Amino acid sequence: RSSRPLACSPNAPKMAARWLVVVVTVLVATAFSAGDAACSSSSFEENTDFDGHDLHAVKAHSPADCCAACTAASGCNAWTHMPPDTCYLKTSDAGRRSMSRYTSGVAPPPTPSPCTSDWNCSLAGVCESGVCKCDAWTIGPTCSHLNLLPVNKSRMGYLDDYYTSWGGNVLKYDGDNQYHLFMAEISCSPSKPHCGLGNWQRGSQVAHAVADHPAGPFRRKELILKPEHHNPTIKIDPKTGFWNLYSISGGSGPIVVAVSKNGPLGPWENRDAHPVSQQQNPGPFFFPNGSVSMFYRSSAKGVGPCSDESIGVSFCDNATAQCAGDINPLFSHTAEDPSVFQDHRGNYHMLVNALPGGCKPKDAAGGHAWSKDGIHWSDLVVGVFTTTVRFQDGTNMTCNRRERPQVTLDDNGLPWVMTTGILDCPNATSSSDSMTFTLAQEFARS
Question: Whole-structure pTM over 0.85, yes or no?
């Protein structure tokens, strides 16, 4: 055998090419094998197409091959296999529609680095032997995404025959053992019910609805705050027991509060003349001594990637005091609609709309950040919930926007129900009308 270097051999180019083919084949096969290991047919959606959001198409002889191709492709989050051998790689699983013989699925999440502390588990689980063990309400390798259950169509939150609504939150009142929702709703004309969100700056008001379950169905009871009031959040002061209804009294603020000393029954002391903050989108968090951390939407330099809208916090001595001492931004990703709760371990969690303003597409706008002290926060994880809602009967709907996330806790301090404002939902009530309403969806709790 010649000892000449390969480059000196007349057959060197052919041999190098053969070795290159072998190496590439091994690398591709390795990637597809890893994808096959992560792709389970139990998670595939039969007779379903994810319409739109295409990266490009590749050849794949089976749904499993298509899933593996998505796993190996940069930027691929979902896929649709069209028989016999076409695989569409996609950035999103939005646009679900029935399509005979098509199979679709979501790319398996990448294998995370071993966790070293509960912080790596989004403070929504515990790190055990390098692996995150998630609390029931979260899911994913780092416990950052929300584990939301399919919706019962008889408990969809608040869908009024007349009013459009746009999110709110729910509290239980021990006086009547009922659940009370305070939501933004748009005052529509008699000739145009369900008039959408477009008139919110002139027609938004805050109303009160009641149900025997935190997911509804809620029955409208009364109007609390006339236009213009928007972005309501109801909180109980643990020191006084008073109910405090925060909102904005104009399109860009300020933040105001109405107070009831008699729970949801009122009367309500309207304090519009005494704003607590000049910011907007209030996300108040009460401490046992009655002081408040007021999370809010603002703007800040260095926030991105698609808007300069930011989340900040200021501090208030009590429920009606002027807030001061702003910290803005709390993280570098754009966001609005902050809602903060404390879990059973004492950790803080914030849910937001992570794709506000001109950010597009908006199908994966749910954001989650976490903190040990309510001041120093993690980076924002985007896509923790989407505009696609699955139902218990196996059907689903995909809406255009889903914002204003707020959480109702159970008696053990665990997340029970998330309410959101959800827009342009086809067939939400088995009618042909597109709907904008306040959706309630339960978390997994075991």
Answer: no
